[in-house]
UniProtKB/TrEMBL annotation:
SMART domains: Lactamase_B (SM00849), RHOD (SM00450). Gene3D superfamilies: Rhodanese-like domain, Ribonuclease Z/Hydroxyacylglutathione hydrolase-like. Pfam families: Lactamase_B (PF00753), Rhodanese (PF00581). It comes from Brevibacterium samyangense. InterPro entries: Metallo-B-lactamas (IPR001279), Mito_Persulfide_Diox (IPR051682), POD-like_MBL-fold (IPR044528), Rhodanese-like_dom (IPR001763), Rhodanese-like_dom_sf (IPR036873), RibonucZ/Hydroxyglut_hydro (IPR036866). This is MBL fold metallo-hydrolase.
Length: 476
């Protein structure tokens, strides 16, 4: 048996290829939408992808199940559990609790594990060449290394109300019935790692075991003592902010993401074409330089995506494909680099990349307003209607913030206009922890028409400055 983990550091998301080496058949679980990585991996091992499935209707990335099935002719499988409201809207075989997918000697058994979502499936894998007992468990967003999937995302991101409590109860029951009943040696392969917003305490380990989680996970003592309420209380306390684009992912994944098919390489765009598109509003530049370079000058209305490593996350914060029809032109050295960004973008349903420019030469530029910590108080005194905005997560704001600031995370800021003054009416002074997330948020807000001043160095710089000021006062 072959079991390969394919991990996307950007979205902290894991997919898996399971293959029977005797027959050359392979199954992919929870594929992302840029599917070439799975085709290459199967070819490397001399296997044919004959089946594709997913654990649930994802909220944090756009599923590649339809895409990979279309590219390979494989059979697509999705959950048939969860009731009428949780049925997929595209053609695929439905799996229910106990149903199996056969890959030569390998049996993959679906287990209904609701809690994170009502339709959620996990997959027990039995290598029939060695045993008739399962040895591996692909748990999706059910059980992570050190944590379990949060049951509040439907409330936080998808517009539901108070489903978190029923979900938490379901999760408790699923742990009892479909996890702790397994032998301790069963290896667990979760759908996410540290950094994912799908839980609050995810470990960075790529796998764990039933026995290890039973003994050491935070939730183990509650299950051992049959303390459902204690489990629910700790589970729901302190969950991180959910990104606003999660709601779109839920809708699109349930309906079935649009098929990409063969994707042409991004083309070179001339400065003249981009300048004309910027003036007409039909094109927008994605500035991929580091934050300090952007602060020295960028194209008016440019989006700031300072890192390829988080390009999917940040473009989903800064660009809403359901409300914005501008084509994107990326600042990239060549088509290969632009394609790498496009791969990240399509993972969150941003299919708008037109081409690339290698330089800003020949384009109009502006210098974004940035204010040092030492000048913040004077600026706010002169602009008493200004809004000081902390774009970090709730937990970061609670742990410490600039006095008088309002919290609205960068992952929500573009999608919550009612929580902000009308564009162009009052200045916004924005900050994050170090400045990177702030650059993404601030430039998205500028493109939406807001007057934005960035706090130079963000909270890290301000807190260091404030500490120096306090020390000077104590000395005097």
């Amino acid at each position: 048996m072959l079991l390969e983990r394919i991990y996307d550091e950007d979205l902290a998301q894991a997919s898996y290829l399971i293959g029977c080496q005797a027959t050359g058949q392979a199954l992919v679980v929870d594929p992302r939408r840029d599917v070439q990585v799975y085709l290459d991996l199967a070819a490397h091992h001399g296997m044919e992808i004959t089946a594709v499935t997913e654990t649930h209707i994802h909220a944090d990335f756009l599923s590649g199940t339809r895409e990979l099935a279309a590219a390979t002719g494989a059979t697509a499988y999705v959950s048939g559990e969860g009731g009428a409201d949780w049925q997929y809207g595209f053609e695929a075989e439905r799996l229910r609790d106990g149903d199996t997918i056969m890959l030569g000697n390998i049996t993959v058994t679906a287990r209904h594990t609701p809690g994170h979502t009502p339709e959620h499936l996990s997959y027990l894998v039995t290598d029939g060449a060695f045993t008739d007992e399962p040895g591996y468990y692909l748990t999706g967003d059910f059980v992570f290394s050190g944590d379990v999937g949060r049951p509040d995302l439907l409330d936080e991101a998808a517009g539901f109300q108070d489903t978190r409590f029923a979900g938490a109860k379901q999760l408790f029951a699923s742990l009892k019935a479909a996890f702790l009943t397994l032998p301790d040696h069963v290896q667990v392969f979760p759908g996410h790692g540290a950094g994912s917003a799908c839980g609050k305490a995810l470990g960075a380990l790529p796998s764990t075991t039933v026995g290890y989680e039973r003994k050491f996970a935070w939730w183990g003592k509650y299950l051992e003592n049959d303390d459902e309420q204690g489990f629910i209380d700790e589970l729901l306390e302190g969950q991180p902010d959910a990104h606003a684009y999660f709601a779109r992912m839920k809708r699109q994944n349930k309906q079935g993401p649009a098929l990409l098919g063969e994707r042409p390489a991004p083309r070179a765009v001339t400065a003249e074409e981009l300048a004309a598109g910027l003036a007409e509003g039909t094109l927008a530049l994605v500035d991929t330089r580091p934050v300090d370079e952007v602060h020295r000058g960028t194209v008016p209305g440019a989006l700031s995506i300072p890192s390829l490593g988080k390009a999917a996350t940040h473009i989903a914060w800064a660009y809403d494909p359901e409300a914005d029809d501008a084509g994107l032109v990326i600042l990239a050295a060549d088509a290969e680099t632009a394609t790498a960004y496009d791969d990240h973008f399509v993972r969150v349903g941003v299919d708008a990349l037109v081409g690339f420019v290698p330089t800003l030469e020949g384009l109009p530029t502006v210098v974004p307003p940035v204010i040092p910590s030492a000048e913040l108080d004077a600026f706010l005194a002169d602009h008493q209607d200004a809004v000081l905005l902390d774009v970090r997560n709730r937990s970061e704001h609670t742990a410490g913030h600039v006095p008088g600031s309002r919290q609205l995370s960068a992952g929500k800021i573009l999608f919550h206009p009612d929580d902000l003054p009308a564009p162009g009416t009052v200045p916004l002074v924005t900050y994050c922890q170090s400045g990177l997330r702030n650059s993404v948020a601030a430039n998205a807000l500028r493109r939406a028409g807001h007057q934005v001043v960035e706090l130079d160095g963000s909270y890290a710089a301000w807190s260091a400055w404030a500490a120096r000021q306090n020390a000077l006062q104590h000395q005097s």
